[in-house]
């Protein structure tokens, strides 16, 4: 058993999300809010169905979090241009600022780790992390990443 790697992964995840957690707590938000805000900010105009597919959560869970983000002015919903029943999600200016602030914290942590490992290890680390994703979802995740540049 690779217990050392399992434990390192737990500790790395704890610290990776810990920096944003402290900021999110000031708003009364949690990790679910962070994930929604991150993807809405990265993909302006995505639909609720697309977000549900990415997050792999129930519609009920998303509705609660999304309602809070909309009510507090971090996300807005706009009707689709072709189908007015469709709701397109956009981060507001405040939402973009918060999402970027959180991403910068995590980017610095990743940057320090890559610097320590050697920047040439990034493709190896990418393949390793992709290998941790369920094979049924891996292709769509990698396609999402390719479209996010």
Tell me the domain tally: 2
User: How far from one another are the termini?
Assistant: 36 Å
Estimated radius of gyration: 17 Å
Ranges where pLDDT stays below 50 over 5 or more residues in a row are none
CATH superfamily of the largest domain: Winged helix-like DNA-binding domain superfamily/Winged helix DNA-binding domain
Q: What is the overall shape? A: globular
Whole-number mean pLDDT: 92
How much helix is in the residues?
A: over 70%
CATH class designation of the largest domain: Mainly Alpha
**CATH topology heading of the largest domain:** Arc Repressor Mutant, subunit A
Q: Could you give the order of strands across the largest sheet?
A: 1-3-2
Q: Work out the number of β strands.
A: 3
Order of helices and strands: HHEHHEEHHH
Topology (SSEs and partners):
Elements: H1 3-27, H2 31-42, E1 46-47, H3 48-55, H4 59-71, E2 75-79, E3 87-91, H5 93-117, H6 122-132, H7 135-146
Helix pairs in contact: 1-5, 2-4, 2-5
Description:
Pfam families: MarR_2 (PF12802). Residues 2-134 form the HTH marR-type domain. Keywords: DNA-binding, Transcription, Transcription regulation. This is MarR family transcriptional regulator. This protein has 149 residues and is mainly alpha-helical. The protein folds into 2 domains: 16-117, Winged helix-like DNA-binding domain superfamily/Winged helix DNA-binding domain (Arc Repressor Mutant, subunit A, Orthogonal Bundle); 119-149. It is 71% helix and 8% strand. The protein is built from 7 helices and 3 strands. The chain has a 3-stranded antiparallel sheet with strand order 1-3-2. A hairpin with a 7-residue loop joins β2 (75-79) and β3. The mean pLDDT is 92.
């Amino acid at each position: 058993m690779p217990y050392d790697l399992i434990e390192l992964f737990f500790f790395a995840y704890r610290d990776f999300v810990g920096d944003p957690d402290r900021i999110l707590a000031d708003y009364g938000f949690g990790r679910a809010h962070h994930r929604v805000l991150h993807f809405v900010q990265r993909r302006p105009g995505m639909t609720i169905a697309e977000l549900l597919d990415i997050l792999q959560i129930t519609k009920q869970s998303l509705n609660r979090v999304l309602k809070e983000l909309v009510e507090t002015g971090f996300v807005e919903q706009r009707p689709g241009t072709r189908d007015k029943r469709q709701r397109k999600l956009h981060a507001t200016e405040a939402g973009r600022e918060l999402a970027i602030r959180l991403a910068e914290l995590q980017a610095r942590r990743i940057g320090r780790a890559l610097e320590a490992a050697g920047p040439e290890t990034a493709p190896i680390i990418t393949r390793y992390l992709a290998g941790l994703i369920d094979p049924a979802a891996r292709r769509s995740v990698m396609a999402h990443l390719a479209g996010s540049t």
